[in-house]
From TrEMBL:
It comes from the Eukaryota. Keywords: Signal. Residues 1-18 form the signal peptide. This is Uncharacterized protein. It comes from Xylaria flabelliformis.
Amino acid sequence: MIGSVLMIILSGLWVVQSAVPIMASVETSPSTTWDLRWNNSAIDDGGASALLSSIDLNETTSPEGVWGDLAFPDLSVISFLDDTRMSVFNNANSAEFFHFVFTLPALRPSLSYETVPEENIHLSSVSNFTDIPNGLYEPFTIIGINSVVDLPQGSNGGPSGNRQYFWLNDSLWIQSSMGTMNKRVDLFQVHLGPWDRSQKDFHGFGDDDASIEKGNIEQPDNPDGCPSIVVISAYLAADDLSAGNIIVLLCSQKIQEVQAEGSLRANETRRVGERSLLSPPLTNESTAIYLTNGTDGVYSFNYRVEPHLLNFTQSRGTVINAVLDPFFNHMVFGLNGSPLEDMTGPNNIDRLKDSINRLHKRYMVQVMNTPIFRKTLDHSYPKTQQPFNGTANALVSRLTVDYTL
């Protein structure tokens, strides 16, 4: 029989097609779920900031579970809906062409911004003094920044947490040289109140409550739905205090769920990421929805990310007449950094927002990829997760008749 088949093939009546595409229906289900509560966010980020620093320094690679700004669920065993098709795929020409295609719900962090109006920002020269770095005298000026910031509907601030605004008081140290333009950018978490007066930091509270508490992890989390991050970007000279050169952003942290189609290698470990995906996943933006933090209609999360973002390994790099905190140093000199001049000044607000959002997303997906967010499903309980339907795809060899002979 084998000889007869070989004779037919050798005669040219039959030919071998070596790359015939085949497809079969498959399904799987998530083996993990998401817990969006990050109750100890001021203390523990699961090592995400250190990991991202190492990734950007080419000391390690991103673990499976994320791609870009998307975090994917882990998958259960992938099964064929028709078991008889499995043997055909097992004989596929090459594992390189054997892959699965699924549309999966991915999480995507984001920031929404509210720009404090210029007319609400007031600058003053607080004092002049002389610093002594390395024994050399150099004049500096302290610039005071004062602003009354209106809070979103339903958010309250102040010492007792009962006001729809809060005072922002901050200061910048800049060079006093006439005409020298100084750049400074800072990111910090904001404590809107109510405040725990037993936990004071160096900013103090004061009787007039005209202060913003920042950087003290002992303070309570912000109320739900309130902004949790403030960014101040300054581009000014000591002799030209124009509020138009100060950008103050209130940032609210949000999480989207979006459907994303991805092609996974057939020998993958059921984790979706840079090594298992054959190409960048395609998101269907029409499916994107914001997730609530557990309160109906409240889409912002009060994660305390400042202590971790300021722990980024500072890259090697300095900017003349500029002061950068570790987050912005990483943003300028880290992977695919953005030039500082593209993020300062009143004409660059959108670029500043995009750059902050990009790095914040890259950090947050690494947090989501830790056990803080990613929880293994307990399969001892009845299966309640919706299955993910997809396809198995491969190339096989097939005999066909050559009718041209």
